[in-house]
Amino acid sequence: xxxxxxxxxxxxxxxxxxxxxxxxxxxxxxxxxxxxxxxxxxxxxxxxxxxxxxxxxxxxxxxxxxxxxxxxxxxxxxxxxxxxxxxxxxxxxxxxxxxxxxxxxxxxxxxxxxxxxxxxxxxxxxxxxxxxxxxxxxxxxxxxxxxxxxxxxxxxxxxxxxxx
Length: 164
What we know:
Blueprint: H1 6-37, H2 48-70, H3 79-113, H4 120-132, H5 136-161
Helix pairs in contact: 1-2, 2-3
């Protein structure tokens, strides 16, 4: 295999297997955390860490099979079984790589599609102040500030749209 010492490739395969197991465990932990926060759990194939971990393990298996075939560690009589299995592992890892890329793009789009509303921190502080304040005059001042804020925000939106 390109003149690289098979023992170095074997070390990289062990590293890839360890990274794969770590990513799978991390993905399961994140999936449990997200499941506790959301009402509906996302399926395992939607978690990018799990897909990446499986891909790492498949790639290390492919490298190990390649080393076994090229270094003649496996008997020649097993080549009829090992070579098709090797091809299946290569195709499966390619499909998983495509899924990882697709999920990554989808996650970025999902994050940018739901922008955070502007001024929510101020509104939540005002509502907390309103809940603590029992004075009707203070509540009227808070409502007046909210109306003013909304009016200014609408004016800014119209200005940006070129309508003001």
